[in-house]
Each structure stands twice: as structure tokens, then as C-alpha cells.
Amino acid sequence: MAHQAEIGVFGGSGFYSLLEDVREVKVDTPYGAPSDSFFLATVAGRSVAFLPRHGRRHTIPPHKINYRANVWAMRSLGVKAVISPCAAGSLQLHVKPGDFVVSDQFVDRTRNRVDTFYDGPIVTHLSSADVYDPVLRALAVQTIKDHGIEVHDGGTVVVISGPRFSTKAESKWFSDAGWEVINMTQYPEAWLCRELGIAVVNIALITDYDAGVHEGTEAVDAMSVLEVFAQNADRIQKVVLDLIGRFPADLDALGAAAALGPTRGDGHTISPEDIRLFETGL
Fold first, then answer.
1. 48-63: pLDDT as tens digits
2. pLDDT tens digits for 213-250?
3. Out of 133, 143, 155, 211, which could bridge 199 as a Cys pair, Cβ 3.0 to 4.6 Å?
4. Are 55 and 12 in contact (CB under 8 A)?
């Protein structure tokens, strides 16, 4: 393929609008069209593919995103590691709007989302104990600290289908469980990256206190989310672009592809040849 990238970012035009020599390319997949064209650029000497997960004009709601097409297209471009920033709500008082959370776990509370590439004939069962890459997480935490931003090292993001926000009862349930962050896109996006052997790191930009179940907080609304995100857009953009320059030179050493080591349904270990055939649809 003529167009290649080694690092991917699920993010809008703010991440690449100030970069030089940005190339727009369309990528076809067996799963339909991705959310938009990909925008390829060089950042700190690294080849990067940017994809607006909601479309460049934010016209695709979270429950309508073609996650499989987005991740597949990243992989077909050669991407081995992905940065997955997102706007998110807080479920705990100590996680404040404006803070960043580098999540280390997710809880899936979505429904009716296609969430696997392994529908057959290749059948496998991968571990989801630790989906977010620990090396990239540590780099993200340090980068955010270096930018003077309050950061929480670790946190569970509970993913809901949307587009509606949580009821107070739901929000209290999630908060009482001890989870820190709530979002609508991390699942199955992060998981699908793992299924294709792509290392993934999430940075959640906290915009609100969800349903306002904590004393002194107000329930979230769309306008407040957009206002806080707009106020902090420059910070997340600078962090992501800086983080790209800190990624390990050898992305294979992260070991994400080793997640494909479990066996297929016929008892054979999944091999690079399996993945090649899988990718080409043969």
C-alpha cells in the first residue's frame, strides 16, 4: 500500500490542522466505510494517521460509529499503536472537570454494538484483563504532567451506548462501584485494537460530573460538555502531539501483536499468515 503510518490517533482536525504536508486518503474495508478519510502526517519524525471518529463535522453519534471499519483501516495502514483521546464525565468528586485520566480498565455497558473481528472462520478468545498498554500509559501520564495538567494515573472508564446521558440512578450505580470515568466510545474501539494486535492508550479529558449525583455538582448537559472540551482542546492537542514524539522507536516491542497468540477454534495457533489472509479477506 502506498500510504503507510505506524501510529494512529482517533481525533479530529485539531490534532493535524497545524501540521505540514498533511495528506488525505480514503481507506476501504471489508466492514464498510470508516468514519471519514484518514489524514496522514509526520510528527516528530513518526508517520501518523489521524481519523475523526465522529466524522470531520461530528455528524456520527457514538452508537452509529463503524468501529470495526475504523480499527481495520488503521491496521491496514500499518498502524501498530493508537492514541485514543476522548471527552468523558467524572463519577468521582476527586476527578474534576479539566483533569485528564489515563484509563487502565474499561467496563462495557453498551448494547447492540458489533464488537469483534472473530466471527469465523478464525475463532479465538483473547484476554481482556489489561487492554490498555502499560508502557504507553506511563508515557502518557508523564507527558500530561510535563504540561502542567492534573492527571490521574489509572481509572476505570464505564462505556455506555448513548446518545443519552445516564440517569441519576445509573450514575450512582457506577459511582458506587468505584469507577472513575464515563464515556460513549471507548468500547469496542479499544478492544478491537487489541483484537488486531494494536497497542492502545486512552486519555480521557473530563468535561463534567455526569448526572450530578455528588453534592454541589450539576447534571451534565451537551452544552456544558462542549464548552469545557473547547476550553481544553488546545491542551489535549499539545499533549497528544508531544506524546507521539515519546513513543518507543520499536513499537513491536510493546508486544500487542503477541495477544494474537491464543489458538483458533481448530486448536492451531494464530499465525501471521492467518492475519494476512484475514486482512485480505481470502
1. 999 999 999 889 999 9
2. 777 777 767 676 667 667 778 899 999 999 999 999 99
3. 133
4. no
Q: Which amino acid is at 73?
A: A
Q: Where are the beta strands (DSSP E) in the chain?
A: 7-10, 23-25, 38-43, 46-51, 81-90, 100-102, 105-109, 151-153, 156-160, 181-183, 199-208
Structural domains in the chain plus CATH codes: 7-280 (3.40.50.1580)
Active-site choice (119, 210, 242, 266): 210
pLDDT digits (tens, 9 = 90+) for 244-273: 999 999 999 999 987 776 444 444 444 444
Of 134, 140, 144, 83, give the one whose Cα is nearest residue 104. 134
> Is the distance from CB of 204 to CB of 181 less than 8 angstroms?
yes
39: β partners: 24, 50
DSSP structural state of residue 34: -
Active site includes 210? yes
Annotation says 208 is catalytic: yes
CA–CA dist 194, 192 (Å, integer): 5
Q: How far is the C-alpha of 160 from the C-alpha of 183, rounded, in Å?
A: 6
Q: Active site residue: 115, 208, 242, 274, which one? A: 208
Instruction: Report, in angstroms and rounded to the nearest whole number, the Rg of the chain calculated over CA atoms.
Output: 18
pTM of this prediction? 0.89
Q: Tell me which residue has cell 464505564.
A: 158
